[in-house]
Design goal:
By secondary structure, this protein is α/β, with parallel strands linked by helices. It is 34% helix and 13% strand. The chain has helices at 29-42, 64-67, 82-96, 138-142, 153-156, 160-176, 200-213, 253-260, 271-289, 316-328, 340-344, and strands at 55-60, 101-109, 122-123, 135-136, 147-148, 182-183, 218-222, 263-268, 297-300, 308-309, 313-314, 332-334.
């Protein structure tokens, strides 16, 4: 049983304002750096390199697009304030456990306009693009209800015929692999946009940790391949295209970080999509590589919410079912408000 020597939680630093988690604002890096150094000295926080138990926090897509009301894909959950509440708890978790979290990895969903899940990629017989949140099946493409938009072929560096072949092949692969059907999303997390940036309150917490612990944050870019969806941080939905083409690679780095750390804590958005598929892919890799590694994984149940669009779709039950399956395989479903030493010194997980 793993025991962490630093079990006393820290107070929340005075600069943190919970009510600002839902807002966009500029982080005062220089002032926060000075505050972090002061906090380090007051609480005798040691550099992360000295940790005997290495705890890694993986924050998935904690970006404005998914976490700030009014942005393209705000993850409201059933409560209507899902991502806001999640991020408040995530920030508080980081601050309370600043001296325990060894390193932080943040994934950044990263898109441009011409991608397979954006409206411009497809057209119908009238030349119209699908509306956001349209679900497109293999049969829809096979029957010609939707087809590749040939006018974007040049920009993507492919010929129109290949584009159509790829679209049909892609939808077939999703069905064969028991993935979600192709979902057309609103244009979101556009590279260079405000929506692409980290939520300021969370960014500030990450930066504070970096300075206080002398631990550089790691960023993982995902989702910029125009020919595939990329929910999971470990790999795209489809790796191969038609004509024996290879379009993408898996990120083997994630499995390696699991090997190198004693504890991997996962939070972020959305529980039903990028979080669930990341954990699912991680579990598949673990079962192939070393089944004992599953015991290292802790899922912050109260720092993630499912996609819920009232009157259109509700992925709550799908997300809960996925977390239940992860727990059955031996991953720990925990809450951010519980002391980390309680997780590590207990063999029980939250019943979900």
């Amino acid at each position: 049983m793993l025991k962490h020597p630093k079990f006393v939680e820290l107070p929340i630093p005075p600069h943190f304002e919970a009510q600002k988690v839902a807002e966009i604002w500029k982080v005062d890096y220089q002032q926060r750096a000075a505050d972090a150094i002061h906090w380090r000295n007051v609480h005798q926080i040691t550099p992360s390199a000295q940790d005997t138990v290495k705890v890694m926090l993986v924050a998935i897509d904690v970006q404005n697009t998914f976490c700030i009301p009014g942005f393209e894909l705000f993850v409201a959950g059933r409560s209507g304030t899902g991502a806001i509440d999640d991020n408040r708890r995530l920030c508080e978790f980081i601050y309370r456990n600043l001296h325990v979290i060894t390193n932080i990895t943040a994934t950044l969903d990263t898109h441009t306009a011409m991608q397979i899940f954006h409206p411009i990629f497809l057209v119908n017989e009238s030349g119209e693009h699908p509306a956001p949140h349209t679900t497109i099946s293999y049969d829809d493409i096979k029957e010609g209800s939707w087809k590749f938009n040939p006018e974007i072929a040049t920009s993507l560096g492919i010929d129109p015929q290949y584009g159509q072949e790829h679209l049909l092949h892609y939808a077939y692969e999703l069905r064969k692999r028991a993935k979600y059907d192709l979902t057309i999303w609103p244009y979101h997390v556009m590279l260079g946009s405000i929506g692409h940036a980290l939520v300021p309150a969370v960014e500030e917490a990450f930066f504070f940790h970096t300075i206080a612990r002398n631990s550089q944050i790691n960023f993982e870019i995902k989702g910029d391949n125009p020919l595939t969806e990329h929910y999971s941080a470990i790999g795209p939905e489809v790796l191969d295209g038609p004509r024996s083409s290879h379009i993408a690679e898996k990120n083997q780095h994630f499995l390696q970080t699991l090997v190198e750390n004693d504890v991997v804590v996962i939070a972020g958005q959305a529980k039903s999509h990028c979080v669930a598929w990341t954990i699912n892919d991680l579990l598949e890799d673990i079962l192939k590589y070393d089944k004992t590694l599953v015991d290292k994984v802790y899922l912050l149940e109260d720092c993630t919410s499912p996609v819920v669009i009232p009157g259109i779709v509700d992925f709550s039950e799908v997300a809960d079912s996925a977390f239940h399956r992860f727990a059955q395989h031996g991953m720990h479903v925990v809450r951010s408000t519980d002391p980390i030493d309680r997780w590590l010194n207990s063999s029980s997980a939250i019943d979900v």
